């Protein structure tokens, strides 16, 4: 599909150049250039390793989107990452920050007619079940992941956005071997298709639903996910509910089904500028919940921890609760938080042998101005009641997982 997208772009440019050079010139003059310069330092002894891994990296992105010509526009985004220092003996960062090089992550054509648009090629996608890593969320990183896809968006129905698409390839943040990721079929296998609908017909209420199906290389590796979410704004507070049901046949008959529901509340505490967030989720089947495609789906469950995401909450038969307070002081926002996940791994066939997991942490955000900000995260995780005979009881209690990150961003 990459070849098709590139060919389509070349053909379109040739046609408009030969027939209407002045209009093409105006379209390019209307182009918008955006970019970001990033730097990140991270240190982690993930799962209680004897020593910590650490990495320092700089990078960023540069993108351009042309103006429209008869409804057609094109966009490209380059990303780059360069390691300043790395100690990755424990492979903690091999799928995240351990990347050296540059990559063309977006190269698409976007055609719009009336209330319908078709976007073809390499592109970032932001939906609950198909999502590029999201700024300000646990999936945030130096590099964004991307998709090679055909996406159709329509808004003919009042207060409703309908999106449908087919994803043929996926680009991870890294290739797992120290380089930037390439567009491959690994996660999408023989192709993935999705339908997402979002509706705001009722005042203060947003409803959305999405389905994702992945064709496995064999019928025994097919996956599908169904997701619902409702958000209601009440007197400056947002009350949310979610439900997700998934099937991952590659996990076998006893663990293929995952199912979870959750509730969340956010808003002001009524004391100065203090704010709060609290959430609860419960997974009801033996299997782990499959959240979808892309690093952004690691944020899907409401109880996703700010550093380690929702992996713990996605375990089978787990109840998870988290809470945090936003404390703004002199232009700096401090967010202390804590979470607890309860899971009794009473069988070797459980989708998790980790038992109960407790996490505490602190986020510090300093927006120097509208373009430049600094963010620091620290998260401390321990476990108890792990499955006897597989991991020592309290495996991480003496060797807790500690993760520290410092992230700088300048956008232009």
TrEMBL record:
Signal among keywords: yes
InterPro entries: Porin_dom_sf
Keyword Signal found: yes
Signal peptide range in chain numbering: 1-21
Taxonomy, superkingdom: Bacteria
Keywords of this entry: Signal
Protein name: Porin
Protein's organism: Sulfurospirillum multivorans (Dehalospirillum multivorans)
High-level lineage: Bacteria, Pseudomonadati, Campylobacterota, Epsilonproteobacteria, Campylobacterales
